[in-house]
Protein backbone atom coordinates (compact mmCIF):
# COMPACT_ATOMS: atom_id res chain seq x y z
CA UNK A 1 0.00 0.00 0.00
CA UNK A 2 1.38 3.41 -0.91
CA UNK A 3 1.86 6.24 1.57
CA UNK A 4 -1.04 8.19 0.09
CA UNK A 5 -3.32 5.18 0.45
CA UNK A 6 -2.21 4.67 4.02
CA UNK A 7 -3.02 8.26 4.87
CA UNK A 8 -6.25 8.26 2.91
CA UNK A 9 -4.95 11.01 0.59
CA UNK A 10 -6.85 11.32 -2.67
CA UNK A 11 -9.31 8.59 -1.74
CA UNK A 12 -12.99 8.57 -2.61
CA UNK A 13 -15.69 8.41 -0.01
CA UNK A 14 -18.36 5.82 -0.85
CA UNK A 15 -21.01 4.25 1.26
CA UNK A 16 -19.85 5.98 4.44
CA UNK A 17 -16.40 4.39 4.21
CA UNK A 18 -14.00 7.33 3.91
CA UNK A 19 -10.49 6.98 2.65
CA UNK A 20 -11.08 3.95 0.42
CA UNK A 21 -10.12 4.57 -3.19
CA UNK A 22 -10.73 2.33 -6.16
CA UNK A 23 -7.39 0.70 -6.98
CA UNK A 24 -5.58 1.86 -10.05
CA UNK A 25 -3.20 -0.06 -12.26
CA UNK A 26 0.14 0.73 -10.69
CA UNK A 27 3.58 0.93 -12.14
CA UNK A 28 5.12 -2.42 -12.91
CA UNK A 29 6.19 -4.03 -9.62
CA UNK A 30 9.72 -5.36 -9.35
CA UNK A 31 8.72 -8.81 -8.13
CA UNK A 32 5.98 -11.37 -8.60
CA UNK A 33 5.20 -11.20 -4.89
CA UNK A 34 4.62 -7.43 -5.10
CA UNK A 35 2.28 -7.88 -8.06
CA UNK A 36 0.41 -10.62 -6.21
CA UNK A 37 0.04 -8.35 -3.17
CA UNK A 38 -1.39 -5.60 -5.41
CA UNK A 39 -3.83 -8.10 -6.90
CA UNK A 40 -5.06 -9.22 -3.48
CA UNK A 41 -5.50 -5.59 -2.38
CA UNK A 42 -7.58 -4.95 -5.48
CA UNK A 43 -9.75 -7.97 -4.66
CA UNK A 44 -10.39 -6.73 -1.13
CA UNK A 45 -11.40 -3.32 -2.51
CA UNK A 46 -13.65 -5.06 -5.03
CA UNK A 47 -15.42 -7.05 -2.32
CA UNK A 48 -16.00 -3.90 -0.26
CA UNK A 49 -17.41 -1.94 -3.23
CA UNK A 50 -19.58 -4.84 -4.41
CA UNK A 51 -20.95 -5.39 -0.89
CA UNK A 52 -21.94 -1.74 -0.88
CA UNK A 53 -23.66 -2.18 -4.27
CA UNK A 54 -25.62 -5.19 -3.02
CA UNK A 55 -26.61 -3.32 0.14
CA UNK A 56 -27.98 -0.47 -1.96
CA UNK A 57 -29.95 -2.93 -4.07
CA UNK A 58 -31.52 -4.39 -0.91
CA UNK A 59 -32.35 -0.93 0.51
CA UNK A 60 -33.46 0.89 -2.62
CA UNK A 61 -34.05 -1.97 -5.13
CA UNK A 62 -31.36 -0.39 -7.33
CA UNK A 63 -27.67 0.38 -6.99
CA UNK A 64 -26.37 3.92 -7.19
CA UNK A 65 -24.72 4.72 -10.53
CA UNK A 66 -21.52 5.88 -8.83
CA UNK A 67 -21.28 2.61 -6.90
CA UNK A 68 -21.87 0.52 -10.03
CA UNK A 69 -19.20 2.43 -11.90
CA UNK A 70 -16.78 1.96 -9.01
CA UNK A 71 -17.34 -1.81 -9.00
CA UNK A 72 -16.71 -2.01 -12.74
CA UNK A 73 -13.59 0.17 -12.41
CA UNK A 74 -12.16 -2.08 -9.72
CA UNK A 75 -13.10 -5.13 -11.77
CA UNK A 76 -11.10 -3.79 -14.70
CA UNK A 77 -8.20 -2.95 -12.41
CA UNK A 78 -8.19 -6.55 -11.16
CA UNK A 79 -8.00 -7.78 -14.74
CA UNK A 80 -5.01 -5.53 -15.39
CA UNK A 81 -3.27 -6.63 -12.19
CA UNK A 82 -3.95 -10.27 -13.07
CA UNK A 83 -2.43 -9.89 -16.53
CA UNK A 84 0.57 -8.07 -15.06
CA UNK A 85 1.06 -10.91 -12.58
CA UNK A 86 0.98 -13.45 -15.42
CA UNK A 87 3.51 -11.43 -17.43
CA UNK A 88 5.93 -11.18 -14.49
CA UNK A 89 5.63 -14.90 -13.79
CA UNK A 90 6.48 -15.71 -17.42
CA UNK A 91 9.25 -13.11 -17.57
CA UNK A 92 11.05 -14.76 -14.63
CA UNK A 93 11.46 -17.86 -16.79
CA UNK A 94 13.23 -15.99 -19.61
CA UNK A 95 17.05 -15.82 -19.53
CA UNK A 96 18.62 -12.36 -19.78
CA UNK A 97 20.10 -11.32 -23.12
CA UNK A 98 23.71 -11.49 -22.01
CA UNK A 99 26.84 -12.77 -23.66
CA UNK A 100 29.92 -14.58 -22.45
CA UNK A 101 32.32 -12.61 -20.31
CA UNK A 102 29.59 -10.69 -18.53
CA UNK A 103 29.08 -8.13 -21.31
CA UNK A 104 25.66 -6.86 -22.31
CA UNK A 105 23.73 -8.06 -25.35
CA UNK A 106 25.61 -5.50 -27.41
CA UNK A 107 28.95 -6.96 -26.33
CA UNK A 108 30.31 -3.54 -25.26
CA UNK A 109 32.31 -2.47 -22.28
CA UNK A 110 31.49 0.45 -19.99
CA UNK A 111 33.26 3.19 -22.02
CA UNK A 112 31.76 2.05 -25.32
CA UNK A 113 28.33 1.71 -23.75
CA UNK A 114 28.47 5.23 -22.31
CA UNK A 115 29.56 6.64 -25.69
CA UNK A 116 26.75 4.87 -27.51
CA UNK A 117 24.20 5.96 -24.94
CA UNK A 118 25.28 9.60 -25.24
CA UNK A 119 25.11 9.46 -29.04
CA UNK A 120 21.71 7.82 -28.92
CA UNK A 121 20.35 10.46 -26.54
CA UNK A 122 21.63 13.20 -28.86
CA UNK A 123 19.78 11.60 -31.73
CA UNK A 124 16.56 11.17 -29.75
CA UNK A 125 16.58 14.63 -28.19
CA UNK A 126 17.98 16.81 -31.02
CA UNK A 127 18.00 14.67 -34.11
CA UNK A 128 21.82 14.86 -34.18
CA UNK A 129 23.03 11.78 -36.07
CA UNK A 130 26.74 12.63 -36.00
CA UNK A 131 27.62 10.41 -33.07
CA UNK A 132 25.49 7.51 -34.22
CA UNK A 133 26.98 7.55 -37.71
CA UNK A 134 30.32 6.73 -36.18
CA UNK A 135 28.83 4.05 -33.93
CA UNK A 136 26.13 2.91 -36.35
CA UNK A 137 24.18 -0.22 -35.42
CA UNK A 138 22.56 -1.65 -38.55
CA UNK A 139 18.75 -1.91 -38.60
CA UNK A 140 16.16 -3.88 -40.60
CA UNK A 141 17.57 -2.42 -43.81
CA UNK A 142 20.99 -0.98 -43.11
CA UNK A 143 20.61 1.99 -45.46
CA UNK A 144 17.07 3.06 -44.53
CA UNK A 145 16.62 4.55 -41.03
CA UNK A 146 12.82 4.42 -41.43
CA UNK A 147 12.96 0.64 -41.62
CA UNK A 148 14.41 0.42 -38.15
CA UNK A 149 16.53 3.49 -37.58
CA UNK A 150 19.19 3.20 -34.96
CA UNK A 151 18.78 0.32 -32.59
CA UNK A 152 18.24 1.28 -28.96
CA UNK A 153 21.40 0.88 -26.90
CA UNK A 154 21.27 -2.33 -24.84
CA UNK A 155 21.45 -0.31 -21.63
CA UNK A 156 18.12 1.28 -22.56
CA UNK A 157 16.44 -2.02 -23.40
CA UNK A 158 17.91 -5.27 -24.64
CA UNK A 159 14.53 -6.92 -25.10
CA UNK A 160 12.37 -6.25 -28.16
CA UNK A 161 8.87 -5.30 -27.04
CA UNK A 162 5.70 -6.76 -28.52
CA UNK A 163 1.98 -6.23 -28.26
CA UNK A 164 0.03 -8.08 -25.57
CA UNK A 165 -0.74 -11.56 -26.85
CA UNK A 166 -3.64 -13.59 -25.59
CA UNK A 167 -2.57 -17.19 -26.10
CA UNK A 168 -5.31 -19.70 -25.43
CA UNK A 169 -4.50 -22.13 -22.61
CA UNK A 170 -6.54 -25.03 -24.04
CA UNK A 171 -3.37 -26.91 -25.05
CA UNK A 172 -2.28 -26.92 -21.40
CA UNK A 173 -5.61 -28.45 -20.34
CA UNK A 174 -6.03 -30.99 -23.16
CA UNK A 175 -4.39 -34.32 -23.93
CA UNK A 176 -1.51 -33.91 -26.43
CA UNK A 177 -0.45 -36.74 -28.75
CA UNK A 178 2.61 -36.85 -31.00
CA UNK A 179 2.04 -38.63 -34.33
CA UNK A 180 4.34 -39.71 -37.16
CA UNK A 181 1.67 -39.61 -39.87
CA UNK A 182 -0.79 -37.05 -41.20
CA UNK A 183 -3.88 -38.36 -39.38
CA UNK A 184 -4.55 -39.87 -35.96
CA UNK A 185 -7.44 -42.33 -35.83
CA UNK A 186 -8.74 -43.08 -32.37
CA UNK A 187 -11.24 -45.86 -31.59
CA UNK A 188 -13.68 -45.08 -28.83
CA UNK A 189 -16.39 -47.14 -27.11
CA UNK A 190 -19.38 -44.83 -26.48
CA UNK A 191 -21.10 -47.57 -24.42
CA UNK A 192 -19.49 -50.02 -22.01
CA UNK A 193 -19.43 -53.81 -22.03
CA UNK A 194 -22.84 -55.52 -21.62
CA UNK A 195 -23.29 -57.81 -18.61
CA UNK A 196 -26.07 -59.50 -16.64
CA UNK A 197 -26.97 -61.50 -13.53
CA UNK A 198 -27.49 -65.28 -13.74
CA UNK A 199 -28.26 -68.15 -11.42
CA UNK A 200 -25.56 -70.65 -10.46
CA UNK A 201 -26.55 -73.28 -13.00
CA UNK A 202 -28.32 -71.12 -15.58
CA UNK A 203 -27.13 -70.84 -19.18
CA UNK A 204 -24.74 -68.04 -20.03
CA UNK A 205 -25.93 -66.46 -23.29
CA UNK A 206 -23.54 -64.30 -25.23
CA UNK A 207 -23.75 -60.64 -24.24
CA UNK A 208 -24.00 -57.81 -26.73
CA UNK A 209 -20.73 -56.81 -28.37
CA UNK A 210 -19.73 -53.23 -27.55
CA UNK A 211 -19.80 -50.87 -30.51
CA UNK A 212 -16.80 -48.76 -31.38
CA UNK A 213 -16.75 -45.29 -32.88
CA UNK A 214 -13.77 -44.05 -34.87
CA UNK A 215 -12.63 -40.49 -34.28
CA UNK A 216 -10.33 -38.94 -36.88
CA UNK A 217 -7.95 -36.09 -36.12
CA UNK A 218 -6.09 -34.81 -39.22
CA UNK A 219 -3.11 -32.49 -38.76
CA UNK A 220 -3.29 -29.10 -40.47
CA UNK A 221 -0.38 -26.89 -41.48
CA UNK A 222 0.49 -23.46 -40.15
CA UNK A 223 3.25 -21.50 -41.87
CA UNK A 224 5.05 -18.19 -41.74
CA UNK A 225 7.97 -16.83 -43.77
CA UNK A 226 9.42 -13.61 -42.30
CA UNK A 227 12.55 -12.08 -43.79
CA UNK A 228 15.50 -10.07 -42.51
CA UNK A 229 18.57 -8.66 -44.22
CA UNK A 230 21.90 -10.30 -43.66
CA UNK A 231 23.27 -6.96 -42.46
CA UNK A 232 20.69 -6.91 -39.69
CA UNK A 233 21.58 -10.44 -38.62
CA UNK A 234 25.28 -9.58 -38.61
CA UNK A 235 25.14 -6.20 -36.89
CA UNK A 236 22.11 -6.00 -34.61
CA UNK A 237 22.68 -5.68 -30.89
CA UNK A 238 20.18 -8.44 -30.13
CA UNK A 239 19.87 -11.96 -31.48
CA UNK A 240 17.37 -11.22 -34.26
CA UNK A 241 17.32 -14.82 -35.46
CA UNK A 242 16.25 -16.05 -32.02
CA UNK A 243 13.75 -13.20 -31.76
CA UNK A 244 12.09 -14.11 -35.08
CA UNK A 245 11.91 -17.75 -34.01
CA UNK A 246 10.27 -16.81 -30.72
CA UNK A 247 7.81 -14.40 -32.35
CA UNK A 248 6.72 -16.98 -34.92
CA UNK A 249 6.27 -19.56 -32.19
CA UNK A 250 4.00 -17.18 -30.23
CA UNK A 251 2.05 -16.29 -33.39
CA UNK A 252 1.48 -19.99 -34.03
CA UNK A 253 0.33 -20.48 -30.44
CA UNK A 254 -2.24 -17.70 -30.89
CA UNK A 255 -3.55 -19.23 -34.11
CA UNK A 256 -3.87 -22.75 -32.77
CA UNK A 257 -5.33 -21.53 -29.47
CA UNK A 258 -8.19 -19.79 -31.29
CA UNK A 259 -8.74 -22.90 -33.41
CA UNK A 260 -8.96 -25.19 -30.35
CA UNK A 261 -11.90 -23.08 -29.11
CA UNK A 262 -13.82 -22.16 -32.26
CA UNK A 263 -12.02 -23.58 -35.32
CA UNK A 264 -14.33 -24.95 -38.01
CA UNK A 265 -12.13 -27.94 -38.92
CA UNK A 266 -11.43 -26.65 -42.46
CA UNK A 267 -7.64 -26.37 -42.84
CA UNK A 268 -7.43 -25.94 -39.07
CA UNK A 269 -8.26 -27.94 -35.91
CA UNK A 270 -11.92 -28.22 -34.90
CA UNK A 271 -12.72 -26.28 -31.75
CA UNK A 272 -15.01 -27.68 -29.07
CA UNK A 273 -17.51 -24.84 -29.60
CA UNK A 274 -17.94 -25.89 -33.26
CA UNK A 275 -19.52 -29.25 -32.42
CA UNK A 276 -23.32 -29.62 -32.30
CA UNK A 277 -24.83 -28.79 -28.91
CA UNK A 278 -28.09 -29.94 -27.35
CA UNK A 279 -29.85 -29.38 -24.05
CA UNK A 280 -28.12 -31.62 -21.55
CA UNK A 281 -31.35 -33.51 -20.83
CA UNK A 282 -31.29 -34.68 -24.50
CA UNK A 283 -27.56 -35.34 -24.70
CA UNK A 284 -26.33 -38.03 -27.09
CA UNK A 285 -22.88 -39.06 -28.29
CA UNK A 286 -21.54 -36.77 -30.98
CA UNK A 287 -22.77 -33.52 -29.42
CA UNK A 288 -21.97 -31.46 -26.33
CA UNK A 289 -24.61 -30.88 -23.69
CA UNK A 290 -25.48 -27.37 -22.55
CA UNK A 291 -27.48 -25.85 -19.71
CA UNK A 292 -29.29 -22.56 -20.17
CA UNK A 293 -29.34 -19.49 -17.96
CA UNK A 294 -33.01 -18.88 -18.81
CA UNK A 295 -32.25 -15.32 -19.94
CA UNK A 296 -31.07 -14.33 -23.41
CA UNK A 297 -27.68 -12.65 -23.03
CA UNK A 298 -27.46 -12.70 -19.26
CA UNK A 299 -27.84 -14.51 -15.95
CA UNK A 300 -31.18 -14.98 -14.23
CA UNK A 301 -32.22 -12.06 -12.01
CA UNK A 302 -32.82 -14.43 -9.09
CA UNK A 303 -30.43 -17.26 -8.33
CA UNK A 304 -27.95 -16.19 -10.99
CA UNK A 305 -25.35 -18.73 -9.90
CA UNK A 306 -27.75 -21.70 -10.01
CA UNK A 307 -26.86 -22.38 -13.64
CA UNK A 308 -23.21 -22.87 -12.62
CA UNK A 309 -24.23 -25.48 -10.05
CA UNK A 310 -26.36 -27.21 -12.71
CA UNK A 311 -23.39 -27.28 -15.10
CA UNK A 312 -21.12 -28.73 -12.41
CA UNK A 313 -23.46 -31.60 -11.62
CA UNK A 314 -24.29 -32.24 -15.26
CA UNK A 315 -20.79 -33.70 -15.42
CA UNK A 316 -20.16 -37.23 -14.18
CA UNK A 317 -18.29 -37.52 -10.90
CA UNK A 318 -15.21 -39.06 -12.53
CA UNK A 319 -14.81 -36.03 -14.78
CA UNK A 320 -15.64 -33.48 -12.08
CA UNK A 321 -12.48 -34.39 -10.19
CA UNK A 322 -10.31 -32.91 -12.96
CA UNK A 323 -12.70 -30.23 -14.23
CA UNK A 324 -11.96 -26.57 -15.01
CA UNK A 325 -14.17 -23.60 -15.77
CA UNK A 326 -13.12 -21.93 -19.03
CA UNK A 327 -14.28 -18.38 -19.89
CA UNK A 328 -12.88 -15.03 -20.98
CA UNK A 329 -12.02 -12.18 -18.61
CA UNK A 330 -15.25 -10.22 -19.22
CA UNK A 331 -17.41 -13.20 -18.28
CA UNK A 332 -15.20 -13.82 -15.27
CA UNK A 333 -15.69 -10.17 -14.28
CA UNK A 334 -19.46 -10.72 -14.10
CA UNK A 335 -19.13 -13.90 -12.06
CA UNK A 336 -16.83 -12.20 -9.52
CA UNK A 337 -19.91 -10.38 -8.20
CA UNK A 338 -21.81 -13.56 -7.24
CA UNK A 339 -22.26 -14.48 -3.57
CA UNK A 340 -23.80 -17.51 -1.87
CA UNK A 341 -26.64 -17.44 0.69
CA UNK A 342 -24.13 -16.84 3.51
CA UNK A 343 -22.62 -13.79 1.79
CA UNK A 344 -19.41 -15.51 0.66
CA UNK A 345 -18.04 -14.76 -2.79
CA UNK A 346 -18.20 -17.73 -5.15
CA UNK A 347 -15.10 -16.56 -7.05
CA UNK A 348 -11.89 -16.73 -5.03
CA UNK A 349 -8.49 -15.31 -6.00
CA UNK A 350 -5.49 -17.61 -6.43
CA UNK A 351 -3.95 -18.80 -3.18
CA UNK A 352 -0.45 -17.91 -4.40
CA UNK A 353 1.30 -16.41 -7.41
CA UNK A 354 1.22 -18.77 -10.38
CA UNK A 355 -1.92 -20.60 -9.27
CA UNK A 356 -5.42 -20.35 -10.76
CA UNK A 357 -8.42 -18.55 -9.34
CA UNK A 358 -11.26 -20.79 -8.16
CA UNK A 359 -15.02 -20.76 -8.73
CA UNK A 360 -17.07 -22.96 -6.40
CA UNK A 361 -13.90 -24.91 -5.65
CA UNK A 362 -12.93 -25.55 -9.30
CA UNK A 363 -10.00 -23.85 -11.11
CA UNK A 364 -10.86 -21.05 -13.53
CA UNK A 365 -8.92 -20.89 -16.80
CA UNK A 366 -9.07 -17.58 -18.65
CA UNK A 367 -9.29 -18.06 -22.43
CA UNK A 368 -9.77 -14.86 -24.42
CA UNK A 369 -11.03 -16.82 -27.43
CA UNK A 370 -14.21 -17.75 -25.55
CA UNK A 371 -17.19 -15.59 -26.64
CA UNK A 372 -18.55 -12.71 -24.59
CA UNK A 373 -21.90 -12.98 -22.88
CA UNK A 374 -24.59 -12.44 -25.54
CA UNK A 375 -27.91 -13.93 -26.61
CA UNK A 376 -27.49 -17.71 -27.08
CA UNK A 377 -23.70 -17.45 -26.64
CA UNK A 378 -21.81 -20.43 -25.23
CA UNK A 379 -19.62 -18.26 -23.03
CA UNK A 380 -18.71 -20.73 -20.26
CA UNK A 381 -17.35 -24.25 -20.57
CA UNK A 382 -16.93 -26.66 -17.67
CA UNK A 383 -15.32 -30.03 -18.00
CA UNK A 384 -12.41 -32.39 -17.86
CA UNK A 385 -10.51 -31.17 -20.91
CA UNK A 386 -7.77 -33.75 -20.40
CA UNK A 387 -10.34 -36.44 -21.17
CA UNK A 388 -12.54 -34.35 -23.45
CA UNK A 389 -10.23 -32.63 -25.95
CA UNK A 390 -7.29 -34.01 -27.94
CA UNK A 391 -4.45 -32.01 -29.52
CA UNK A 392 -2.43 -33.83 -32.19
CA UNK A 393 1.11 -32.66 -33.06
CA UNK A 394 2.83 -33.95 -36.19
CA UNK A 395 6.13 -32.30 -35.27
CA UNK A 396 7.27 -29.30 -33.36
CA UNK A 397 7.89 -25.93 -34.98
CA UNK A 398 10.33 -26.37 -37.90
CA UNK A 399 12.38 -23.47 -39.19
CA UNK A 400 14.23 -23.57 -42.53
CA UNK A 401 16.78 -20.76 -42.88
CA UNK A 402 17.00 -19.78 -46.56
CA UNK A 403 19.70 -17.18 -47.41
CA UNK A 404 19.64 -17.95 -51.18
CA UNK A 405 16.14 -17.47 -52.63
CA UNK A 406 15.67 -13.73 -51.99
CA UNK A 407 19.11 -12.17 -51.61
CA UNK A 408 19.96 -9.90 -49.77
CA UNK A 409 17.19 -11.15 -47.48
CA UNK A 410 17.34 -14.27 -45.37
CA UNK A 411 14.00 -16.09 -45.30
CA UNK A 412 12.83 -18.08 -42.29
CA UNK A 413 10.33 -20.60 -43.64
CA UNK A 414 8.54 -21.84 -40.54
CA UNK A 415 5.93 -24.61 -40.43
CA UNK A 416 3.94 -26.47 -37.84
CA UNK A 417 1.36 -29.24 -38.27
CA UNK A 418 -1.27 -29.60 -35.60
CA UNK A 419 -4.82 -30.92 -35.30
CA UNK A 420 -7.42 -31.18 -32.60
CA UNK A 421 -10.98 -32.09 -31.70
CA UNK A 422 -13.30 -33.47 -29.05
CA UNK A 423 -12.51 -37.07 -28.13
CA UNK A 424 -15.05 -37.59 -25.32
CA UNK A 425 -18.36 -35.78 -25.73
CA UNK A 426 -19.55 -36.39 -22.17
CA UNK A 427 -16.50 -34.78 -20.53
CA UNK A 428 -17.35 -31.15 -21.47
CA UNK A 429 -20.51 -29.18 -20.67
CA UNK A 430 -21.40 -25.66 -21.81
CA UNK A 431 -23.43 -22.80 -20.34
CA UNK A 432 -25.73 -21.16 -22.89
CA UNK A 433 -26.99 -17.62 -22.29
CA UNK A 434 -30.48 -18.23 -23.57
Automatic annotation (TrEMBL):
<feature type="region of interest" description="Disordered">
    <location>
        <begin position="1"/>
        <end position="25"/>
    </location>
</feature>
<protein>
    <submittedName>
        <fullName>HK97 family phage major capsid protein</fullName>
    </submittedName>
</protein>
<feature type="domain" description="Phage capsid-like C-terminal">
    <location>
        <begin position="148"/>
        <end position="433"/>
    </location>
</feature>
<dbReference type="Pfam" id="PF05065">
    <property type="entry name" value="Phage_capsid"/>
</dbReference>
<dbReference type="InterPro" id="IPR024455">
    <property type="entry name" value="Phage_capsid"/>
</dbReference>
<dbReference type="InterPro" id="IPR054612">
    <property type="entry name" value="Phage_capsid-like_C"/>
</dbReference>
